[in-house]
Amino acid sequence: MAEYATLSEALPRQQLPSPPSRPSDAAAEPMAASKQYRVKNVDMKGRIIHVGFLEVSEIGVTFSFEHYPAEAIHWPLNCIRRYGVNAVTGVLALEVGRRAPTGEGHFGFRADEADEICTVLDHFTSSSGRLWQV
């Protein structure tokens, strides 16, 4: 089983990208507003690495650090390969590809609303990425 990458290892602090601005196409079909959840970034053993907020929107998933809200990591939806919730631990797992700003990796998040986060991701993705049984 692959190890979860930690957000600290994924990008040095000075290289953290800011999320892209939302597209402003008036002719586009209206989408539901983005949802934000309080989460804990965890490693494979369940140890808390970072605490922050995970925002899921039609442009991607963004993790904002609780104590450094200006610093955020954004994964566009097209970079998210698979996602799911571990039925035993309740950890939301994201697998991102090599074109993601963080590079290829697995990221784990503990959240009370992990199942809801997957449902919102299903809503924003054209084909369900929840084919991954965690």
Automatic annotation (TrEMBL):
InterPro entries: Docking_Protein_DOK, IRS_PTB, PH-like_dom_sf. GO terms for cellular component: cytoplasm. The keyword Transcription regulation does not apply. GO terms for molecular function: fibroblast growth factor receptor binding; transmembrane receptor protein tyrosine kinase adaptor activity. GO terms for biological process: fibroblast growth factor receptor signaling pathway. Residues 29-134 form the IRS-type PTB domain. It holds the Pfam family IRS. Residues 1-32 are annotated as: Disordered. The keyword Iron-sulfur does not apply. Keywords: Receptor. This is Fibroblast growth factor receptor substrate 3. It comes from Geodia barretti. The lineage of its organism: Eukaryota, Metazoa, Porifera, Demospongiae, Heteroscleromorpha.
